[in-house]
Amino acid sequence: MKKYGRYICGVLTIAALLGTNASGPVPVAWAAEQSGQDALRQDGQTGGEAREPDGGQNVGDDRNSGGQNTGNGQNMGDSQNTGNGQNSGNGQTMGDDQNPGSSQTTGDGQNTGNGQNTGDSQNAGNGQTTGDSQNTGDGQTTGDSQNSGGQNTGNSQNTGDSQNSGGQNTDNGQTTGDNQNSGGQNTDNGQNTGNSENSGDGQDSGDSENSGSSQTTGDSQNPDDGQPSGDIQAPDGGQAPEEGQNPEDGQESGDGSGEDGLAGKDDSRVFAEVDQETAEWIRTAGEALAQIAAERDIMALVYLSDEYPVRVSPSYESETAVTVLSGQTVNILDMAVDENMEVWHYVKLGYMGQEIYGYVPRTNLACSDERFLAWEETFGMNAAAYAVDGERAGYADIEQFPESYRPALLELKKKHPNWTFVVMNTTLDWRTTIDAELQGGKSLVYKTLPEWTKNGLYDTGTWYYASRAAVEVYMDPRNALTENAIFQFEQLTYNEQYHTLDAVAKFLKSTFMTDDGGKLAPGTNSTYAQLFWEIGREDGRKVSPFHLAARVLQEQGNGTSPLISGTYSGYEGYYNYFNVGATGQTDQQVITSGLKYARDHGWNSVDKALRGGADFISANYIKRAQDTLYLQKFNVNPKGTPNAYAPYTHQYMQNITAPTTEGLSIKRLYEGAGSLENTFVFKIPVFENMPASPCQAPTVSTEVVLALPEGYGDSVMWLDGVAYQGELRNGSLIVNAPDGNAKTAVVYKYDDKGVPVGMYVWSLSYNGTIYTATAEPGLQDLLTYHGFSIRVTGDTGIRFKTGISTELRAQLIKKGVNGYVLKEYGTLVMNNANMGQYPMIKGGAKVAGGISYGIDASGKKQDVVFEIMDGRYRFTSVLVKIPVEQYKTEFAFRGYAVLERNGTQVIVYGPPKARSIYDLAKVLLGNGTYEPGSESYVFLEKLVGDADALQSPAAAEEE
C-alpha cells in the first residue's frame, strides 16, 4: 500500500470533467471546511478537513267566557256565558230542554266529543243525545262568543283566530290557524298546526301534555302539542321525540307503538281519503307492525338513492328531518299510507349522538327481517316492490351501483332473485383508503399466502405486513361479488327463521366445537351449538349465531390455543374465545394480553367468555355501524356516520382475508340450512375514484421491501445507485423497481442538518415473480462521507473525502464478508444540475471519476490513501482549475465500491453530496477559520469577490 505524500488519488481538472486534457497535480495549500483550524497544507497532507454542516273546533272569532256549555247544546247569536263554566265530555246541560237524538252545534264553533247528556238535555256519545228531537237553533253559539276560565273536554277542535284563555283543552284537541292558548293545559294527542302560539304555563305530560312555557311560531307544525321540553332538535327542522314517541300523536310511552300505534287514533296512519274498510285495514296493519317493532329491532337499509332525505311527515313535500347516505341503517317502528296510497315507514336512526325520527317510503328501504316480510305479505304492504304482472320489478338495486359492479351482481341476482343489494356510499377516496389501511400494522396476511401479498415480517414468522396489492385485492368489494364471498356484506343481526340450532350444529360438526358423541362445551350442560344459538337470539343482543360460530372458528382454528384452554399459567380458569384484546407481536404477548382482558372482565367459564365476547361484538361493532364482516375489518363508514367510529379506526381484526374466509363459512351455514333462497340484504361499499376494473392479484411484482434498521427513516431507496422515492409504512421502505434487474439496495441515514452519517445495504434477488431483499449488516457504513476542503493557494480546487473502515476493508480483501470480496473503490463527480436527468453511477453519462483502490484503465494496481482517521481509510477526489465562471456551479461527489460474489460483481454507492467552491469559500470566511488579512483569507476573499463581480451582459445593462 502506498501512502502518498504529495500526490492525491483522483485529481481531476475541470477540463477533465468536461472532457478536455487534464494536467498533473501540483503542491498547493488546502482549507478544510469543518476543521475550525488554520489548516494550510500541501496536497497529500492529512488532518483537519472539516465536514459539511450540513335531530271542540272553535271556528271564527269565538270566545266562550265564564258560561257553562255542557253537552251538545247550541247557542246562537252574540251570547256570552260568564262565570266559571265548565265544558266537559260527559257534561250535563241543566234545564228543561231535552236534546234527544244527535244534536249538533253549528256556526262558528262546533263542539263534538265524548260529552254525554242524559236526562234533561243529556247528550250521549260523540255529540249524540238520546231521544228523537234535535236542537239546531237555540244552543248554537255563533259570532264573537267568549269562553273564559271554562273547561273544554272531548274531541274539540279550534280552528281560526280563536282564543282560549285560562281553560283546559282535553282529549284530542286540535288547534289550527292563528290560535293562542295562554296559561292553559293541552292534554292528550293535541296538535298545533299553522301560525299557532302556545304560551304561558302550558304543561306537556302523560299523553301529549304540553309542559312549560313552550312556544311554537311560524308556519310550522309541532307534532307533539307544542315543543316538548328536553327533546332533541334535529338538523333541517326535524325533531326527534323521545324513545317510542310518534310525531302525529304526541308523546307515547313504552316501545313506541302507543295505544293505537302510530297516532293513538284510528285514522292517524291514513293520509288519504279512504273508505272505512280501508282505513280499518291500514289501522290493523299498523298495529300489527308496531307490535312486532315492540318485540324486536326491525333493521333496514336506506337505498336506491345516493342520498335520501328522511321526512318529518309521510309526504315527498314534507320538510327534511335529516339527509342520509345510501346504506344508512334505520330501525322500522311503524307505518303510514300517504294520499297516493304509498306505504311509508316511521323509522328511528342515530345521528351525531342523537336519535332522529322520521319517514322513509318503503320503496327506499331494503329489509330482510322475516317477521317484517311476513307482515308485508299478510297485509299486502309492499305492492311497490312488484310489477303489475306479479313478477318482481326490475333490478333497480343493481342500477344504483357503478358499472364495474353490475355484471357480477346481475349473475347473483339471476341465481338468487330474492337477494337485494344496497349501495353503501362511503364518500371515501380509494387510494386514500388503501394508504390508511396499510399504516400502523392494520393489515396483515398469514404466512401461507403468496409472496406478493407480503411486505415484511410482522412477528416471529407467522404474520406478515400486507402488501399494497394484497390490500387492494381483498378490500375491493367487486372481488367479493360471488356466492362464496358475498356474505361478508350481510348484516350480522339475528333472524329466527333461518338462524336455527340445527344449522349451527351442522356447521360445527367437523370442528373442535362438534357435538358428536354428546360432546358438551367444557364446564357447561350445553353443546357449543346450543350456546351460540341461545346467546345470539337473546333480547338485547340479537346477533347472528352463524356469525358468532364462524368468528370463533376463525379466531381459534383447531381449538388448541391457550386462550381457550383454561390452563394457562397465571390465568387458570379464564377463557377468551373471540380473542378480544389479544394483541402483540409475539405469541406470548397475544396470549397474555387476551387472557388479562378475560380476567379483567370475569370470563372465568366458557359460557361467560362466549356471552362476553358476543356482547363485545354487539355493543362495540354491530351497534356502532360495523354491522358486516367487511366493516368489522375495514371500517369505511363515512365521516359523520351515526354512532360510528372514525374511518380506518376501531377495526376488529388485522387479517385482511378474514371477511372473505368468514363469509364463506356463513354461506356454508346457510347452504346447510337450505336457506340460500331466502331474502337477504347485502350492504356493499362503493368508493370514490376506484380503478375502472376490479383489482387483480399480480402475476409478477417488482416491489422492493426493506425492513429498516433502527435510526433509519429516509424515504429514498437507492437501487444500484439510482434514487427512487419510496413509501414508508410499518417500519419498512417500499418502492416499485422498474424491472427485475436490481442487485443492491441502499438507504442512507442523515443527521438533523442533512449530513450523511450512515448507510445500510441489502442484496436483492428476483425470481421472476417477486424481489427478495436480504440485509447485509456486515456491509453497514461501507462508505462514509467526510466533507469538502478548498485549495487556498495556486489553482482553485475543491476536494471531497470518502472513508472506508480499515477492519472491513481488510476482511473484504482477504476472505470476504458474506461472500463479498472487494475489487475496487473510488470517487465519482458530475455537475449537480445533471443529476436530475442522468444517474450518478459508474460509467454513466456526464459522470467522471477516479480509482483509489483497484486496477486502473492502464492495468496498473492502485491503492491510494489520503489519511487514516478514527479507524477509517480516507480517499479523495480533487477537482482543480475551476474557471471563475464556474465558481458558483455545484458539483456532486460520491464514493463507490465494486464487490464480487460468486463471480457476479455489484457496485455499492456512498451518499452523494454537492457543493460549489463559491459556497464553500463563504463558509470558511464566515466561520472564523482564518485571520482577516492572512494569505488564506485574502485568497478566499478574492475568490468570492471574483465570482460576485462576474455578471452577465443583461445584468450589466440593467445596472
Describe the structure.
- The protein is elongated, with a radius of gyration of 43 Å.
- The protein starts with 10 loop residues before the first strand and ends with a helix.
- The strands form 15 sheets. Strands 1, 2, 41, 42, 46 and 47 form a six-stranded mixed beta sheet that branches. Strands 43, 44, 45, 48, 49 and 50 form a six-stranded antiparallel beta sheet that branches. It has a five-stranded antiparallel beta sheet with strand order 26-25-24-21-27.
- With 959 residues, the chain is α+β, with helices and mostly antiparallel strands.
- A hairpin with a 4-residue loop joins strand 39 (756-766) and strand 40.
How are the secondary structure elements laid out?
Blueprint: E1 11-13, H1 14-17, E2 30-32, E3 57-58, E4 109-110, E5 123-124, E6 128-129, E7 151-153, E8 157-159, E9 163-165, E10 168-170, E11 174-176, E12 180-182, E13 185-187, E14 191-193, E15 197-199, E16 202-203, E17 211-212, E18 221-222, E19 232-233, E20 239-240, H2 276-295, E21 299-302, E22 307-311, E23 320-325, E24 329-337, E25 343-351, E26 354-361, E27 365-366, H3 370-379, H4 396-399, H5 406-415, E28 419-429, H6 430-437, E29 444-446, E30 454-457, E31 463-466, H7 468-475, H8 501-507, H9 528-537, H10 545-556, H11 587-600, H12 606-620, H13 629-633, H14 658-672, E32 680-688, E33 703-707, E34 716-719, E35 722-725, E36 727-729, E37 732-736, E38 744-750, E39 756-766, E40 771-775, E41 784-791, E42 797-805, H15 806-814, E43 821-831, E44 848-855, E45 861-863, E46 867-869, E47 872-880, E48 891-901, E49 904-909, E50 913-915, H16 917-926, H17 935-949, H18 953-958
